[in-house]
Amino acid sequence: MTNTTALLHWRPVPLPEPKTLEGYYICLEPLDAQRQGDDFWITLHGPKADPDLWDFLPYGPFSSREAFNTWLTGHAASTDPLFFAVIDSRSGQAQGLLSLMSIVPEHGSIEIGHVIFGRAMQRTPRATEAVYLLAREAFALGYRRLEWKCDDRNERSRRAAKRFGFSYEGLFRQHRVVKNQSRNTAWFSLLDKEWPECRQAFETWLSPDNFDAHSNQQQRLKVLRMHYRR
């Protein structure tokens, strides 16, 4: 009987590096608290900020700019999680941040996490492209498994994971205590063998040709992924 789980000639993969990743609508830049701090303070705490943004995160909202700067500076200095700022290509404004984290090069496992998108980029091609660029980078480095985890009550994050092509793997009950609440954590993953069809779907969906003059999508990402799966 053939062992279908055997992994031949596996070698540990490189660590991700803090570098700029270019897209159509955004670029991802290494998080820089000094250079991007003003944008983030306005985007995440200003009058147009999303009041629900911090509900399922282990930190925030922040009561002062000083506390926020300390938090942002700590994130910028981290290598795991490795944080990237989402920079809108038109305005040059930092509108969100996210990270590569739980990095295990010897097993080829990595996670996209700490996803914090300001209201201006939620449910836009910029948000989708930010996730695509990090996924593309992870698989280009040779990682076999890309993870997505969230509070099981976080419906927005659960929907996003499925839309991006991650498969639900199960629930870790009483996994964490976050803001003095017991958290059940939903686990999702995307594997290297699944990435080619997901990548095609992402790239077709993100193409400017997929949007009309009013920025309405012509084809849905889920439908495109099903198309390339055939």
TrEMBL record:
SUPFAM superfamilies: Acyl-CoA N-acyltransferases (Nat). The keyword Metal-binding does not apply. The keyword Membrane does not apply. One of its GO terms (cellular component) is cytoplasm. It holds the Pfam family Acetyltransf_3. GO terms for molecular function: protein N-terminal-serine acetyltransferase activity; protein-N-terminal-alanine acetyltransferase activity. Residues 42-184 form the N-acetyltransferase domain. Keywords: Transferase. This is RimJ/RimL family protein N-acetyltransferase. It comes from Pseudomonas duriflava.
